[in-house]
## 1
Amino acid sequence: MDTVVAGRAPAASGPLDPRTEARLVWRVARQFAACLELPQITIRARSDFFSLGGDSLSIADLLARLEDELGVLLDADAVVAAPTPEAMARHIHDRTHDRTHDRAHDRAYAR
Amino acid sequence: MPASDAPRPRTRRASADDNAGQVVLVHGTLDESGSFRRAQDHLSRWSVTTYDRRGWGQSAPLGPAPLAQHAADLTDVLGGLGPSIVAGHSYGATIALTVAAARPDLVTAVVAYEPPLPWLPWWPERAPWEQIVLDEGHAPADAAEALLRSVLGAEAWLRLPERVRERRRAEGPVLVEEMRSLRAGPPSFDPEAVQCPVVTAAGAESLPHHCLTARRLADLLPKGRYREIAGAGHPGHVTHPGRFADLVSAVAEVVPVEMR
């Protein structure tokens, strides 16, 4: 799977359909639990990664896990700005959308 | 034949069709299989099996039991029937989904009415009924009464015959065990791993987190759809039995022909 580096603030990129949002929130929530070694039941859609005990080391772990699972590499600044599963799902969607848009743009200009 | 220490399933067969599909109904907490009686009247084209789970009704002497034991019991029931649609109410819906994920050979489809799934990220940190049962320091019998007063209303609770009130209070330890079991350990299944069709449902008058969790669960499930029953609350299988039975028909429509 390709990796996208998401180093800038989330950009609005169209609606996030409910199924995609639910799946991204669930997957991010699972990775919160895994990297913080917390029971899944302690992670809510709006749980703050840092309030749960996250720090600079665990951010790196979270980013690696999300990259492995979703193929999207968020940087630490983005996590600090959007430290909940719900907000990160939106950010991942935006980055994926941007990647798709950029590829379409590249293809158009390669002709 | 189930072992003597296992719940005893009861099957009502469709009268006109020896090849009628199988439906298994799994009840919730503070409930027993008899509460599906009216819903069964609307499921006459199916061969319908119910049983009292450990701790409830005729299986009261067998309980309390953790969620894994309830899943094993449902698996045993299904083993005696073959592939079936499983319709669960509340805690019974969580059991149905748990077994559907583990045994796709036995579960062709699921109806999940307001499954309590505290490990999903949309469930509140402490749901109102969890606060009553687990946080307020009640003895188990008092917790059962407090919960039913909250769900039914104080007047409706007092209108129940005294023997029923005493029985419900005596079920307090089972209630506490089931609510704790839902919150213990890792998730009992991965929603994205449930491959069969699932209709999740809630009553439009139910607590908001029940509706939200059922809706988001449908979004997570690969073949999930969400239905809401207008005018119904948590005991929708009792108050709206025809609409509850319609959920079975709705999910049956999307079961692949070779699985029916």
## 2
Amino acid sequence: MPSAFIVARRELSGYFATPVAYVFIVIFLVLAGALTFTLGNFFGRGQADLQPFFSFIPWLFLFLVPALTMRLWAEERRLGTIELLLTLPMPQWQAVVGKFLAAWAFCGIALALTFPLWITVNILGEPDNGVILAGYVGCLMVAGAYLALGAAVSALTKNQVVAFVLAVALCFVFAAAGSPVVTEFLTQRLPVLAEIARALSISDRFTGFTRGVVAARDIVFFASFIGFFLFVNAVVLDHRKAD
Amino acid sequence: MSATSPARLGATTKPPRSGGRRLWSSDLGLLAAAVLAVGVNMLADRLLPRARVDLTQQRLYTLSDGTKQVLAGLKDPITLRLFYSRRLGAAIPVYGAYADRVREMLSEYAGLSGG
């Protein structure tokens, strides 16, 4: 699928041609660092690990990733460039996959730039680097899940603000599904739903990674989540081509 | 160039009046994809509960050789009972996840001891 890669490369260079990339990366790094060291109590815990950093990632991405995805299709629609993109001689799904891959690679770059935290923790102590590696894999998975969801929502609308708000709301549903507040409420009403909520929860799956365990079923969950929403994205795009 | 061709990509095979039918068929496609995604996850839960890579340096989530040896050398049947409140596990997800882990470990014990 070379044309998906061509779309991805063009999109990725597009991020860095505009202030989007720099603003995103700077805000992400500042927030991640600030949250880790203040609310996360990085020094006070006295443990050489990146647990405080990882615990904030799903919530940080909850706002930042939709900001990245809101323009993916909505802007193309508003500017009318979607017509050009979709009439290029390549299957539509390749455009969908290409845009997703570019955004994912971009998130990967932003995550990679948090390396000073990793260096800090390695200088201060002897952390378990395997756990940290698994945590980063988990972060990438969470980013991918939010991205696929956000991109599908963005394809629905012409308005970027609508895309952003809807994407944040939907991502929040999946992020909060496993939190005690939700599951406790559900157990009192419908215990079956509580188990389903836990199985669907992105943050619940993510904790496995932060413990240092990369489980096959968590990988399957994220892969099917991403695949499903990319499919939704392609279907929505096919439908609303004309508006 | 493709700009001169009147047909849009992806809609070339469909006549313009079948919009309703296309809507219906893609709804069906979405449903099928959702069922597929849920099915794959249920299958993975059933078939691969213990397939995982333990990246911790001390192999915290992997059974040690000593444990394996003891399990392989068991002579009498041993019964292990796990008491777990499904209600509590659902209300406080951390407990639920912990119970899952214990259950996986116990089934690993059972597998290694040959019954």
## 3
Amino acid sequence: MNIAVVGGGPAGLTAAAQLSAAGLPVTLIDEWDSLGGSARYAHPRETWTGKVAALGQLGEASGMSVRTGTVAWGAFRVSGGIQLMLNQAGAASEITVDQVVLANGTTDVVQPVSGGTLAGVLTERALRILVNQHNVLPGSQIVIVGGSGSSRLAADIVRWQLAGVRITNVSLRILTAIEGVGEVKAVRLADGTAIPADTVVFAIGEAPDVQLAGMLGVPTVFDAKRQGWFVPDSHPAADVWVCGGALLGAAGIEQVLQSAVDVVAGITGEVAQ
Amino acid sequence: MSDSAIYLCRCERITRDRVTAAIAEGNQTINDIKRRTRAGMGLCQGIFCTNAMAACLIDAGHQPESIEPMTWRPPTRIVEVAVVASESKT
């Protein structure tokens, strides 16, 4: 039995490394040039990032095939199993596997709002990438909309405030419009007040990326509260497994890693039978 | 259009008003809205706007759990035509 794991973040890397260590032939595919997924732009204080790096080494030592910089842009059922269409910087290839583990994470949720296309409007993930990966703070008057992910920014927010950056947290419910010409100048609230701003950050949630699951015929159900489609469970088809954010949406790291461990137990359990 | 327009699908520059009008015209699924308006047919392939289309359908009286996503089709990310062409030969 050969396995492809799509997504080399905390969940995918855990699943791939453990499956490979269990002696199964694994190919790990990630669209970025380096593994780690969200660990690449986690704050240095988030100590689990070291654990993710160690997993990468474990996976390499166990001989799994790692294909970074490679996008799995399509998935089809063919006679020999599941075929994944791959694109590595313009070089096309495909692999056919018996089982696929979808660990391709989440997308930040955004909502249509007046002024939402102005320069200076970004998602929480984009902010985390700017700050933690590139050491860039996008503005000096930042409005954070929603609070789903802002706890991850809490320590940074205090630090930025000490450095003179003005941070305001508003709920999506009271956000009427983002104002400006070409770029953000202010955020207008339902009571008519305007908050001067040069940056607006949507931190209102994360939804699973279910594109590949959908292409493989896996059913999904819309969750109005979490604003996304979710697969029903971690093993929604005989040859499909889902873990990490792709299964859970927004979730804590322990829950994400546990979901990968559960998938590994499921696959190795089936192999043993 | 001015900056104050509320864009639901920024890739194809489709406003939320356009989507709610399409629903009122009788397009009662995300696939129908997509075919009528092009919302979700741009570069991001609906990653950032299908949830907003679902919200419009809920506002129009649909039950959340009854709302199907658009039919997911390749590619999940931007892919050069040459890549697709070379795949089709194999």
